[in-house]
Amino acid sequence: MTQQHPDDPSPWGPPQQPIQPQPQQAWGQPPPGTPPRPVAGAKPPKPPVYRRGWLLPVAFFVGVLVGHGGGGDGTPAPAPTTTVAEGAAVSPTPTRAPAATKPAATAAPAAAKPRVLLNVTGSGIKRTRTFTVDSSWEVRWTNQTSGYFGIYVEDASGSPVGVAANTTDRGHDVWPGVQPGTYCLEINATGRWAVQVVDTP
Fold this sequence. Notes:
The strands form two sheets. Strands 2, 3, 5, 6 and 8 form a five-stranded antiparallel beta sheet that branches. The relative contact order is 0.16. The chain has helices spanning 49-52, 55-69; strands spanning 115-123, 126-127, 131-133, 137-143, 149-155, 160-167, 171-176, 181-189, 192-199. By secondary structure, the protein is mainly β. It has a domain at 121-199: Sandwich (Hypothetical Protein Tm1070, Chain: A). Strand 5 (149-155) and strand 6 form a beta hairpin.
């Protein structure tokens, strides 16, 4: 008789799998996996809440967010802030240079006005009072009628130093003064006249 090796296939075919016992089905129960039958007179189940009214809560929540974000209660929404990454270069804000101020214009000194030292009018012969002048002065005269008209300039001692007018014509003229000092005028005329001594700047 030939002895068979354990690794050799069985001459009678592959080994048989053990048979699992099937559970016993109770009498009157439907087989496993069969959906239950509806009971007569029972109401169908209601759909889940999240399927019936999910739009209303979402709409209310969106409205609340819009009201708070847009200042619905009178409070302005916070201004957005800008953050700068650490180490990033920040461009300096350009500053406007101050406008150049013009120096205040200094008023030019007012020009000195002529100063009248003597002002006399009359007719015929007249000797004026004395007056003191500097190096810039003049005698202004007017012969108002035709006839002789003469003006003689005398110093404080009565000595003649010049002739300011000597004419017989009607008119006016200016005689420039001489050196500084104290003087008086000797007027000799046949008609009316007017004489001024002016200290000029």
